[in-house]
Design goal:
By secondary structure, the protein is of the alpha/beta class. The protein contains four helices and five strands.
Length: 164
């Protein structure tokens, strides 16, 4: 189709996740702190002209990295609101088995990113290059401890000469 698709998500995530997992700074955190870093998913912005559901990228990242064991993730803001509401409900209605409020784990890093597209058109031919940039940012210092990009996805489109 010439548009972003599931194969593109797989290709981009495979290379970026591999880069993140092998990051020396992520490994350094683990060795100096003696524990697995905790991450929260931030915003992955779609700055392209297409509709791209960036939640697919963030969930793929999260699932693969959790299962790899390199990083741990905490619930995002929307999930936390729902979880907190449930804990308050438990405190009122199931106080003997209610889960404690205030025992949440704070994230060490936030994962953020952008998806952009470069469209190059010449005559009836068009090339769309998708670029995905991801960053892992230290929440305490705001240092970017890992960043990478993938711009391997290129769509070559040739428009027909005549329209029917």
């Amino acid at each position: 189709s010439g548009y972003w698709n599931d194969n593109d998500v797989n290709q981009v995530c495979t290379t970026l996740i591999d880069s993140c997992i092998k990051s020396k700074r992520v490994a350094n955190f683990k060795s100096t702190k003696g524990r697995t870093p905790v991450v929260i998913i931030g915003t992955i912005k779609n700055k392209s002209v297409e509709h791209i559901d960036t939640s697919i990228l963030s969930k793929r990242f999260q699932n693969v990295i959790i299962n790899d064991g390199t990083l741990e993730f905490v619930a995002d803001a929307t999930q936390r609101d729902e979880l907190r509401a449930e804990k308050y409900d438990q405190a009122e209605n199931a106080y003997e088995t209610a889960k404690s409020i205030g025992n949440e784990l704070a994230a060490d890093f936030m994962l953020q990113g952008t998806v952009t597209i470069i469209v190059d058109t010449e005559g009836k031919q068009q090339v769309r290059t998708y670029q995905v940039d991801m960053q892992l940012i230290d929440l305490e210092t705001n240092k970017i401890i890992w960043a990478d990009q993938n711009n391997d996805i290129r769509k070559y489109i040739k428009r027909p000469s005549a329209k029917f």
